[in-house]
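Bench log, entry 3. Co-assembly request; chain sequences pasted below exactly as received.
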Amino acid sequence: MAGYELVFIVQPELEEEPRNALVSKVTQTISDLKGQVIKLDPWGKRRLAYPIKKHHEGFYVVVQMDLPPAAERSLERAIRLMEDIIRYLVVRKEIAPPAEPQQ
Amino acid sequence: MASQARSDGPRPRRYGSSDDDRRGGRRGYGPPAARRKCAFCANKALELDYKKVDMLHNYITERGKIGTRRHSGLCARHQRDMSLAIKRARHLALLPYTAEHVRKG
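Structure output for the full assembly:
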């Protein structure tokens, strides 16, 4: 198991309900891959610095998780197949034990 | 005798070495500026993260380019980390790739 951080952007026109369904689909995928979600942090809608797929806004979600390194590619593939996710990023990041409030 | 005295002192510098070129000598006018320590070395609690958009904004130019080390005052390691963080933030549309993106905004 290794610490990862996933950020993905959901297209803004998606209603709240299907969006929540999409987010739980992602977390479900993670647990299907024997991973474990540590923290789920939806930022909400944000203006994009440049348009992606003609969208000027996006709904950002940050997920911190533990995942077996071998499953990382499968997770990315699953995410790439979700059309409502217009952008994502997965990076290795060990999560420090209960971090003190930042800034 | 001379060599003995030297061995006690600081590391001898050979003339003409690249070290020598960089030190000494003043660039520009005005009083010599004190070298400021890299912000991330000075404050260990400060974490460099591609999600901290407001902080990253201080390290890019108006055109959205990554600022130089002179501009940022960072050490080599943190400048490197900074450049990676900015690139990740760009990928996530947290920062622009070009000024054109900003103008259309």
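Chain B touches chain A at residues 47, 51, 88, 90-98, 101-102, 104-105 (CB under 8 Å). Residues 1-21 of chain B have pLDDT under 50 and may be disordered.
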